[in-house]
């Protein structure tokens, strides 16, 4: 199975997990809003949970709670980001706040976040502790996205985006019973998340007028005084190389190795392909 | 020392803890907003941490992180509530969102909440797990406050308000090393929190036009078809009695017993006194 097939398959499972989760929500209003917030995700982050769990020999069903929790946290953070950024569109439809108002989205997110952490606590209290820290990191990242210095660009990107890549990678060490690999998996998630956000910012720099750039994309532009392309190519290769070294250090074999090694290009290709621009990065 | 003196003293200490916490915040903007959000609290909930920790023989300094974290969570939840309720005033000043905009308050709250949970994790991972659950309960409570049935009134009040009374009471079992009292302390916090919110809603019913009532105060009014006074008196006595039984079951003595026994009337008196209405409840 190649990575694309793996992703399609895990996406179906994750969508089912999300649906089941929503059905179990007792309050009708909460269910409706949660459904809207969680609709149509690419489920990349949840797929990482399946990939790393499988690669480390974990049973697939052990990845379910982690994948679900990761997607809940990711969706809630996007819904809040849209309020913060005044974005009216998300995944081609109205942003949740534009449908349900700010207040209700804040409410529901504030419910979804501890609910996800609660699901994570099934992996034990250490997993919970690290997850709370990672979620705190995303909040600091969101602040640095607004107020951070250009020089802190990579750190901002690590905090705001890589935290939710570290999360499923880290949880896979618990779901597969390979706790000794925890630090390596966090590092792997970190490199992957940085790659993902740098490419995302690159796409913004290419497709948007420079005066419309915000957050880390704006920081990337300023940092490189508009010559972002060579910088992105350099960083892309740097973090990809580190990622590959780390993956090769894992005690895994078979087709999981190929799938994991293909991940950076797969994610970057997804972002670049979606935007319709030419790939000049890799 | 009577309860009033105890409260004045602990409030000073908590204010210092808050100030120290704010000083350690690196981002200037975050510090400014956090400062605004955390200003001028009564520090009742933090004081509970001091009281229960002391009563159970814990060293006072062991109560500091719990008191601080409780007040951070409480302040963040108020700042979010004000967005949700469109309240323009808080503690006699503009609500945080009216000063800093919704988006920034969401940001900062989203930073403060996991920061508080992080502080709590110093009491161990079990304390963290319970705290995440309690925080989830406050979110469910906020939702039931909006959409809940009148018949669920007491449950709504327990979730939305008593959760942040359970929190310091529960944490005191960790800070004092009396883990075996965990369940009793949760129950104590629950009864105290229910009393507090019922009296708070009573004050709203007395002071506000019935068409202006919202949330649990409105539920109280509807549930009792406007005859809330006898209901509140009944419930007040019922929960106070349970509270007193529980406190008397604790292995404590000396002046802490008197202080703890005085708490329900002290809290209710505070709310009623503040509002300027006559006490017809106790």
TrEMBL record, chains A, B:
PROSITE patterns: POLYPRENYL_SYNTHASE_2. Gene3D superfamilies: Farnesyl Diphosphate Synthase. Keywords: Magnesium, Metal-binding, Transferase. SUPFAM superfamilies: Terpenoid synthases. InterPro entries: HexPP_synthase, Isoprenoid_synthase_dom_sf, Polyprenyl_synt, Polyprenyl_synt_CS. One of its GO terms (molecular function) is prenyltransferase activity. GO terms for biological process: isoprenoid biosynthetic process. Belongs to the FPP/GGPP synthase family. The keyword Magnesium applies. This is Polyprenyl synthetase. Its cofactor is Mg(2+). It comes from the Archaea.
